[in-house]
Amino acid sequence: MQSSHSPNDASHQGNSAPLKRAMSTRHLVMLSLGGAIGTGLFLGSGEVIAQTGPVGAIISYFLGGLIAYMVMLCLGELAVHMPVSGSFGEYANKYIGPATGYMITWLYWLTWTATLGTEFTAAALLMQEWFPHVSMWIWTAIFAALIFILNISSTRMFAESEFWLALVKVVTVVSFILLGLLAIFGVVSYHGETQAPLFSNLLAQGWFPKGLMPIFATMLIVNFAFSGTELIGVAAGETADPANNVPKAINAAIWRLLIFFVGTIVVICALLPYQQAGLNAAHVSNSPFVTVFSYMGIPYAEDIIRFVIITALLSAANSGLYAASRMMWALSVKRQLPAMFSKLTKHGTPITAIIVTMFGAIPGLLSEQFAPETIFKNLLGVAAFTMVIVWTAICVCQFNFRRQWYKTGHTIADLRFAAPWFPLTPILGFVFCVITCISMTQDSSMLPGFYSCLIFIALCYTSHYFLYRDKD
């Protein structure tokens, strides 16, 4: 099965030093928030509201937060017990099987690599709205170079840059919710209204104007909005005192996200008729954030939100390159990729893994040239689907780990952090994740991405069987 050494043990690597433990709780919380608050909230939220109606959207995001919380509790227990880089793959290897561990590691690498190119492309397109005469490729190259430098410099530099990039988004969301509440209660003038809008819009068209089915159909978009929270698990191997910092970060991140996401949806739904929220939401000017800020009379609303979304995209790319490169590093440490992938710079960053992951972003960069809508939607579908598969595996790993823990004579009191309500937490997390995966089949435009993911999973299992079955 598995070597007794953990992947962070230098002797196990032979050719590389262990990754440095340079992150604090502050960095972990912001890494998690930064990974989750992105285009899924700024642009995707309008789409969910338009499809489900106000009450449906609030339920969708609340359910999404609940699923994320259950998965993160499972992850917290595993990450405190076994704080290693490449975490999900390592847990799946030990608590499900070596082939699944191998598949999950590659799948999580694919998750972030698939979105990396789209993040750069989308950020470059937004810059073009400001500077129409500058080629999109120049902006793409600038952004790619910036993220590459932040990732190879040092773990500390990466964590610090991610902290400030995420802070821009957090401040924007908090300001949006506070100003929105003031407008709802008539403290701030809103779009020429003579009386406070209050919450009359929420039920203006009935409880569920399009029925209950859209809540199910939009679960993938909603869960993808919460994806990134699991970055805490990836970073656990580079965190000082993970037993204290990881549980703190998980609790802090999830509750903040739930308040931010549900709060944002309530404000948008109270202030805008739901039919307006998702109107052509691919354009920044039609983001519900821009509409609400403009109706409040805030100058340069479109420019402010454009800047925030560019920050959100770069922050997601920054986190994505970090997470994907750590997965390659973990595979190399286990001799499932050439040794050069676990070679570290003197600052402790896996240079080859970072460079190769950057090349993996090329399909996303091509999205602007060839059928951008189709490629972009399918890449996001692939990223969302693979993320939910990883979440499903986390629930199974924690369930199996806890059962093994009890069988060996340990009690819950022996765990430094225990997920509450076992076995309900992993079982419900698993069931909801499976339902979310099935929801992808309801959108015909996402089927190519769905089948591509299934083929990729089959290839992972097949290659592991032929290449590594005798080595585990």
TrEMBL record:
Record domain Amino acid permease/ SLC12A: where: 27-469
Name of the featured protein: Amino acid permease/ SLC12A domain-containing protein
TM ranges: 28-46, 58-80, 92-110, 130-152, 164-191, 211-232, 253-274, 304-324, 344-366, 378-401, 421-441, 447-468
GO cellular component assignments: membrane
Main location: membrane
Gene Ontology biological process terms, A to Z: amino acid transport; transmembrane transport
UniProt keywords, alphabetically: Membrane, Transmembrane, Transmembrane helix, Transport
InterPro entries linked: AA-permease/SLC12A_dom (IPR004841), Amino_acid_permease_CS (IPR004840)
Coiled-coil region: none
Protein's UniProt keywords contain Cell membrane: no
Stored Gene3D superfamilies: Amino acid/polyamine transporter I
Membrane topology: Multi-pass membrane protein
Keyword DNA damage: no
Pfam families: AA_permease
Localization terms from the record: Membrane
Species annotation: Acinetobacter brisouii CIP 110357
